[in-house]
Amino acid sequence: MSVPPSSAQVMASAMAVGNENRESESFKKFFESWLVEQNQHLNELLTASTQHSNNNSSNQGEENEIRQLVDRVIKHYELYYAVKSSWAKQDVLSMLTPPWRSSLEDAFLWIGGWRPTMAFHLLYSKSGLQLEARLGHAEFYNFDLDLDLADLRPAQLEGIDSLQKDRIREEKEITEKMAKQQETVADSSMVDLSHVVSELMRKRSSEDGGARLEEQEVQLSVESALGPKEEGLEQILQLADDLRLRTLKGVIEILSPIQAVHFLIAAAELHLRFHDWGKRKDARQS
Amino acid sequence: MTRICCGVVGEAETAAPVPVEAKTTSARRRRLEIRQLKLISEVQAPETDRKKRKLNLFPSSREYEDARDKRSVIMENGKSYGAPVGLCSEKSMTVAQVSVDVEKETVKENPKFGMTSVCGRRRDMEDAVAIHPSFCRKGGEMSSDFHFYGIYDGHGCSHVAMKCKDRLHELVREEIETEENNMPWKSAMKRSFSRMDTEVFEWNSSYSSISNCRCELQTPQSDAVGSTAVVAVVTPDKIIVSNCGDSRAVLCRNGVAIPLSSDHKPDRPDELLRIQAAGGRVIYWDGPRVLGVLAMSRAIGDNYLKPYVISEPEVTVTERTEEDECLILASDGLWDVVSNDTACGVARMCLRAQKPPSPPQSPGSEGVVAGTAESSDKACSDASILLTKLALARHSTDNVSVVVVDLRKNL
């Protein structure tokens, strides 16, 4: 039986090959094996949640297992961002418009990934669905339970609310940085360079083959103008990814282990299905 | 946002000679320093005996002392609802007042309430909540406690709502304290709101003070900013609700929801006539709006919409009865998705879910009494949090703020 390579193995081999592979191609492979693993984790999380709801009294052993599972899933997210970060250093552009994502996902990206504050909406939506499911049952008024996200306690809701306010602020700051970076596309050096190159092209077409010498020089100027712009983008992408990971961890820290399981289930389901739907849409249209 | 504090009026002062209590007091002060602005839920146990009070209210103070910050309380002591023990409104409970009270051996009714306020699915937090137990006292025959509960739902920016939170209870106190007996509630409340509106206007004019607001760039004079205000003053025999805007107060009496305020919507027939008489128009633009802009017909602030939008509150004075269960104040984040009846039903169930009061016990069985004190403070905050969660579950897209006040007597 052949075992598919893990995302970590894919990463290691791709790194070893170095620049021979196109970076985005290698990251695509990594991303796909990461999705397979996310799906495996989803199954483990689902098993843990059903086991928990079957055992009325949670025991210490079970809780430890759940904690370990949650840690493992978080580590998997950490791996994703660590790999993404190292690839972004080589090819930030494909990280910002990832060809491995569907155009549906692409339309909802914030700086090359999910919008951090979406985590709170995900939490409130899942918590709301689980609370509504209890309407009309005695559990609705049982405040000592710790079954799922319907059982958010006052202190937890307070923690979530204050984390949300912080993250909204940070998200806005990064959005603002991105705006500034995007505006530099029209700074005077870029406008000047685009004019010079356009002039050159016009001259060349009229003189028929002249100005060959200048071509290399022009190419160098273009690269030196675009280089810092890409570096700026890469820094912003790092900030955005860092905020995504910190938001995920921040939410998990506030939740109880079993609540974390339910949150991670919702996150994985939304991520995987949204990806599927987008892929299918793309396939239909092409 | 969500917080539970239990404390007792006068606790700080009773402490002096008792080492244990002194320790608790200083610990509480420490916590207060950190959390001054974040009060959410406070419940005070109905107690008349000072000594019992002390013993009852800190049943597990050791646990709390170890918890340096609130997160560790959550983590290590997950089921401890009563976690931070704190006296939430220092200002209103001065030592002098308390000692007078104790000397007189007055039976005091300490308020029990729960409060939750969250940003929810919005990207800006514009709600503010103010709770001030025993916020003023009347001399002479009316030497009893008045409690203040206010919810302010800002629009345009949060600064008017914040200003109301900081000031309105002080203005109401001033108005009450200048009155002699036979409190003319309606005029006193109207004057308070009018003064609040004036303060907001004056504060706006000195625009140097608003440099931290996000509204600054949009409107240099921040005239287009305002807030609703629904304020309940609960006295031993009355509930006085003053409302301006579309936040709401609902009384739950014997299972029936009785609204104590009426939302100021521009299409309310009498409000529509008033606006038109003043020369304004109501234009439907994503619902009825004054001049096509503001979706409520009264508010504090909103200078640019005067005289069509006014700050005068409608005031109701309701005699309390034995059948009163609780009072719910909330911003439209709740009322848009949860009906008055549903809210009352939910709050009522939460209050009833608490353990029945234990029969009178001989002194020394503090454990049992402590259980009651704890669960009663839990009940109100259970109610406020459950209503908030229900609003979020029903896709409320606004900030959600809920205050639940237990009105049952002699529990």
Please provide a written account of the structure.
- Chain A: One of its GO terms (molecular function) is sequence-specific DNA binding.
- The complex is a heterodimer of chains A (286) and B (411).
- Chain A is built from ten helices and no strands.
- With 286 residues, chain A is an all-alpha fold.
- In chain A, helix 1 runs antiparallel to helix 2 and helix 7 packs antiparallel against helix 9.
- The model of chain A has no long low-confidence stretch (mean pLDDT 89).
- In chain B, strands 4, 5, 6, 7, 8, 13 and 14 form a seven-stranded antiparallel sheet that branches. In chain B, strands 3-16-15-9-10 form a five-stranded antiparallel sheet.
- The N terminus of chain B is likely disordered.
- Helices cover 36% and strands 21% of the residues of chain B.
- The chains are: A mainly alpha (286), B alpha+beta (411).
- Chains A and B meet through helix 6 and helix 7 of A and helix 5, strand 3, helix 11 and helix 12 of B.
Descriptive tags:
heterodimer; A: mainly alpha; elongated; B: 411 residues; Phosphatase 2c, domain 1; 5-stranded antiparallel sheet; 21% strand; globular
Question: What's the helix-strand series of chain A?
Answer: HHHHHHHHHH
Please summarize the sheet with the most strands of chain B. Answer: 7 strands, antiparallel
The biggest chain-chain interface is: A-B, 30 and 39 residues
Low-confidence stretches of chain A: none
CATH topology of the largest domain in chain B: Phosphatase 2c, domain 1
Binned strand content of chain B: 15-25%
Keywords (chain B): Hydrolase, Magnesium, Manganese, Metal-binding, Protein phosphatase
InterPro entries (chain B): PP2C (IPR015655), PP2C_BS (IPR000222), PPM-type-like_dom_sf (IPR036457), PPM-type_phosphatase-like_dom (IPR001932)
GO biological process, one term (chain B): negative regulation of abscisic acid-activated signaling pathway
Protein name (chain B): protein-serine/threonine phosphatase
